[in-house]
Amino acid sequence: MTSCLDDEMVGIEVEDFAGSPYLVDFNIIPNAQGFTPVGLNIGTTPDEEVMFTLTVNLSSAWQLDSDLTVNVAIDEAVVNDYITDALADTDIRNDGYELLDPSLWRIASTSVVIPAGEREASLDIYVKTASIALTDSMMVAVSITGADNSKVGISGNYGSQLVKVGVKNMFAGKYEVLDALWLYGGSSDYSSSCYGNFDFGTMTATMCNVDYIYPYWGYIAQLDVDVANPQTIDGHANAFAVTVEVWRDGTQFNCVQDDTYDGGVWNYVYLDDDGLWNFVLAYVLTTGSGGHIGTIHYRSLPE
Length: 303
What we know:
Layout: H1 2-5, E1 22-26, E2 36-41, E3 50-59, E4 68-74, H2 76-88, E5 97-99, E6 105-107, E7 111-114, E8 120-127, E9 137-147, E10 152-154, E11 160-168, E12 173-184, E13 188-189, E14 197-202, E15 207-211, E16 220-225, E17 231-233, E18 236-248, E19 251-257, E20 268-271, E21 277-287, E22 290-300
Parallel strand pairs: 1-10, 2-11, 5-9
Antiparallel strand pairs: 1-3, 3-8, 4-7, 4-9, 6-8, 9-11, 12-13, 12-14, 12-22, 14-15, 15-16, 16-18, 17-18, 18-19, 18-20, 19-21, 20-21, 21-22
């Protein structure tokens, strides 16, 4: 909080914070590049909106004894200034940022209310993410424009929030392995080598990639989820069938799914009672050394 109160950009340098003025700001500190990154699920239709939230904060040694209305607005100038500075930088990693089309996002309201005796209020942002590509570096910004209390000023350091909007699908994230079987050549058991935590990356709105069951070979499994057809699978409601492909270095390998391996039910994903995704997979990879049988149960880790 003191970094906002000692705010030389608005002519406020305070040593005695108990007597400091009231300031409003956004309370998420930007990263070293000057923005706040968010990763949103890819929408399945062009008009589907995905929400994220910013927090407007009252920075002071004391709360107010009455409600405070804080006004906010979309601020394209903040984005354009950042893009101009990034292009002038010699570091090419700072290139490629773009202003997100105004038709693709909105703020829920042009004001928020911090209740008396409290310090924070939430501002919801809605983005139509289906139009954003995985490789895009889209930027949006919101600025605080004022407050309904003359004693309250706007932070010069954190009065605007610059956000880089990235996309992911709803299955992306880190997973643990609950159970695994890996039979090399159909017989030699290397199952103990298949456990650990693995990252599911986003490829499309419905497709993830992850290390192949036996990760040491460098193969990648591509998991395509049939999200358009929810069904009950093995007693799990709202489950989805999964199609598996296996790739390495741009080459697809022969992979045969086995939806009924060993009398079980395989190759689907479901959301459990804890709100965690579970992928239950079984397939045979055929290479020059024979058919390799693999089954695995991944469960997403809580964020």
